[in-house]
Structure formats: C-alpha cells, structure tokens
Model the fold of this input.
Amino acid sequence: MSTNIGKDGEMRVLRLLSHVVEAEENCDVTRHTNTNTADGGADLILEHPQGLLPHLGSIASGKDNNQLPELSDAQKVKTRIDVKTTESKLGPDVVKKFAGDIRRNPDCNGHVLMGGADLSGQAKSDFKEIQDAQAEVGKTVVYIPNTGIENLERHYTALPKSSSGDEDQT
Done:
C-alpha cells in the first residue's frame, strides 16, 4: 500500500470494477483523472447497460438473489463512482459535496458514493433527499458502505473464470 490512502481506496474499487467488467456484458470502466486532481467529481466511471446498477446495489446490500435482470439489449449508461477511503461514518459535508458533483456530471445517469462505515444520521437524511430528487429526473443515486464493497468483492471474485479457451495470447 502507498502512503496515499485515497488513491489506495480508488485502486481497490477499480480492481473490483475490473472484475465486474470481466463478468458482465457490455461494461467498461474508466478513471478520468489522477486522484487529488480537480476532476469535477468524476473519480471512476462505469459504463454499463441500464438496470445493472440496482443489481450491483442488491449484491452490495447482501440481498442478491443471483438473478441478473435481462440487460443484453438495454441502453448503455454512465455511472460516476466517488470513493471515500475511511472506516468512519460519512457526514453531511461529504454528502453535500457528492450532491454538488452530481450537477457537475450531467452525462452520468448513475451516481454512487462508496466507502465509510455508514452515513451519519443527518447524512442519511440528506442522502435520501438527494436520491428522491434525482429519481424525479431519471437518475439513480446509491450509497455503498465498506461492507457493501466487501460483498461485491466476494461475489465477483468467486465467479468462475471464462473457459472459452480464447484467452489473449499477446
């Protein structure tokens, strides 16, 4: 691990997203900028079929029934992922900044705040208001705590590797 815990947290989520991209159809991930660079809130971007984000949320919450919705012909959308590397609860100031970054990324239909032990009481209330307001304009807003990241890691690293036999020979 480096001495930059924020970057380490982003790289952990980037590894996780690499597993998601490998397992799910029509997905890709990009990291728009280096950590600690003014980036308009676009830390990581997951491009995916519409409907995948709720599925990832159910895995993160431990409620996955292994039933991926039909996504093959679904429209592809972008989801911005903002990673916070901490074992503490996230407060209202973090949620407020996250909400501001939603407005700065109008091309993203999904917005995920990841990290922390949970949201504080006020942060939960503020986050719910943001979720409801964004749902009215067709955007999905999700919070995934550290335990949810762990659930996603367990799920996606436990999947069998591709056995198609056409691995890249380069």
Notes: The two ends are 29 Å apart (CA to CA). The helical segments are 5-23, 52-60, 92-103, 121-136, 146-158. The chain has one domain: 5-158. The longest strand covers residues 76-83.
